[in-house]
Amino acid sequence: MLQVNIWVWLIALGIVISLLVLDLGVLNRKAHRVSLREAAGMTAIWVGFGLAFAVLVYFIYEKHWFGVGVPQGIPGEVTDGWKAVSLYITGYLLEESLSIDNLFVFAMLFSSFRVLPEHQHRVLFWGIIGAIITRSAMIFGGVWLLQRFEWLFYVFGAYLVLTGIKMVIPKKEEEQHAQGENWLVRQLGKILPIAPEFSGTRFVVRFDGKRMFTKLFLVLIVVELTDVMFALDSVPAVLAITTDPFIVLTSNVFAILGLRSLYFVIAGAMDKFHYLSHALSAILVFIGFKMIAYDFVHVPTLLSLGVILTFVAAAIIASAIRVKKKPA
Predict the structure, then answer these.
(1) pLDDT for 28
(2) Which of 39, 204, 264, 327 is the most buried (most CB within 10 A)?
(3) 48-57, 130-139, 239-248, 318-327: which has the minimum mean pLDDT?
(4) For residues 38 and 45, is the Cβ–Cβ distance under 8 A?
(5) Can you give the pTM of this predicted structure?
(6) Which residues contact 2 (CB under 8 A, 6 or more apart)?
(7) How confident is the prediction for the chain on average, in pLDDT?
(8) Burial of 272 (C-beta count, 10 Å sphere; 0-12/13-18/19+)
């Protein structure tokens, strides 16, 4: 596996922990309903943090801080700042784009469980921490496998192509989702003692003299499991961009950090993104073919970035035109 000095990992970890403390300990200490204006402002701030970290990525690889980016003759290594930044931003935008579909599912979950808007941020916050842990394990595992078994590029690529095609096949998504959710809730109810009612933002309460988990904790578990399912698509897609573990993981983490505020931006406008699934499908198919053909055709990182931006922009514009012609 490509080696990155432990001090670089510690710096990145320190920045992420500081941002999480700032978010929950300062900006969102009290449970409240997040307004669209507040969510839009916070989204802009998180995007700013992500881009600011890209500047740090540039200096780490360009100046070879702690020995990072020094050429060692390892396949797939990143040795200059601009390439590192282009890979980081591409991975960041790819993860952000693919995660939008995940946010729609979260909105359905909150609606079906009747989670109050002022309690949703707490679930998303702890859900993000869980996602960072699981993504880290999946990314390191994926990098390790791809650098030892290169034929897995073809497997991952074919998987992404099939997943992208399935996304645009008509299906009763809400019905299937509801059935899956009800089954999962029943199974969790058999394992965990669940209190019959919500108790504010608390995950554990004492009910009838027994310590029990609240329904909000049950929602958190379902959110975590749902994110793992989505990560099975997004992690292989990002690994198609680069197998440098530091770039892959940090681009994923900073994209995930901004998802909470982005959720509140789009939660009230889900019906306006009619063509988004088509764009995500096209992105997965493109990345899948890129992985399948990586031995024969080299696709520049900037081209991949341009394709992702084009698909997402086209979906937003087409959806806006549709809404204008056929308002709800």
Answers:
(1) 61
(2) 264
(3) 318-327
(4) no
(5) 0.77
(6) 74, 76, 77, 143, 147, 243, 244, 245, 246
(7) 78
(8) middle
